[in-house]
Amino acid sequence: MRRAAPQRGFTLVEMMIAVTIGLLIMVGVLTLYLNLRRTNDDMANTNSLIENGRFAVQLLQEDLAHAGFWNGYIPQFDDLTSTDVPGDVPLALPPVCGDFSTWTLADKTAALGIAVQSFSAVPPGCSGIVTNLAANSDVLVIRHVDTCVPGVGNCEALTAGKVYFQLSSCDTEPTTSYVLDTSGFTLHQRDCITLAERRTYVTDLYYVRDYAVTPGDGIPTLMRSQFDLSGGDNAQQAAVPLIEGVEALRVELGVDNVSDSGGTVRFDQAVIWADESNKTSPTNRGDGSADGSFIHCGSGSCTVAELMNVVEAKLYVLVRSRAATSGYTSDKTYALGGSTLGPFTDGYKRHLFTSSAALVNVSRRRQTP
């Protein structure tokens, strides 16, 4: 009778070798996982950066495209059908953050004549609206009326006490008649019977704040303040955060101060036509195109004459990733028009978005054959 061979287990050396191999495999798998996770996080940060930048530029472009839209109204100084010396040339800059109840007729005239303003500091009277302005942020102000009619479709219904714009189309009423107010909307449509529609007056103010939610959180954020009725007052409302990660905003303006025949724009004269018979090429009015270098408004340094002739804007938006990338360094600098930022050593990835936006409601009414 044969005895069964004795069973043998792993020796201690074999166990140690097996454990070591297992640990090496686990370390490799863990390293691969961490690398994949780091790569995915980095890609998510980059994708978020690109998405936020594109959204910011698109938002500003769309609002600028509406700048100067007054539902068919054209200021007399830009009306090429007028035969008189313009009587509505703005004499001063319009108020930005003041209560509408304090506006004078001259303030309303200036608001309709100057569709866009920019500042490199807090605008006068706006310290309660523009708070914690980031060091490299301009303040952009855009004016127009709403593109929808109150109460139609998804447009907000008429609200008592709110500021609306109404334009007359009736032949028996002066062709330049309009109302920009909270009441007194008695102008009519072309049939001179039906009351003309009202449009909500809009002023959007954009800037970059140096925090997102809590002061000191270090997340720069694009902000917007809108003109609205609150507490019985029509004024710019508290700014709300729109897009996190927007670190710098610079706006440069294209001014139309030369006619297509080379003449200087002058509004102290009636329109002078190069061809009086065919009404082409006004020699003392702009042609709708920006002339010369784009200008950057310092602390309200742009003049009334420059701002009423703005037909285009260049946008520079610097956006950073939502989180720092460990070990990331860069020697890149970013040219925001006449300003250069960087290099940065904080581990955040950045991308500069640039674009231009034509003020079509201003530029197109100046174009002639």
Q: Report the uncertain regions.
A: none
Question: What share of the residues lie within helices?
Answer: 10-25%
Count up the helices.
Answer: 4
User: What structural class is derived from the secondary structure elements?
Assistant: alpha+beta
> How many domain modules?
1
Average pLDDT:
92
Number of strands: 15
* Overall 3D shape: elongated
Report the sheet-strand fraction. Answer: 15-25%
Structure commentary:
This protein has 369 residues and is an alpha+beta fold. The chain has one domain (16-366). It contains 4 helices and 15 strands. The chain has helices spanning 12-66, 105-113, 304-307, 360-363, and strands spanning 116-119, 139-145, 164-167, 178-181, 198-209, 221-230, 233-236, 240-244, 246-255, 273-275, 280-282, 310-320, 334-336, 339-341, 350-358. Strands 1, 2, 3, 4, 5, 6, 7 and 8 form an 8-stranded antiparallel β-sheet that branches. Strands 9-12-15 form a 3-stranded antiparallel β-sheet. The radius of gyration is 30 Å and the shape is elongated.
SSE blueprint and pairings:
Elements: H1 12-66, H2 105-113, E1 116-119, E2 139-145, E3 164-167, E4 178-181, E5 198-209, E6 221-230, E7 233-236, E8 240-244, E9 246-255, E10 273-275, E11 280-282, H3 304-307, E12 310-320, E13 334-336, E14 339-341, E15 350-358, H4 360-363
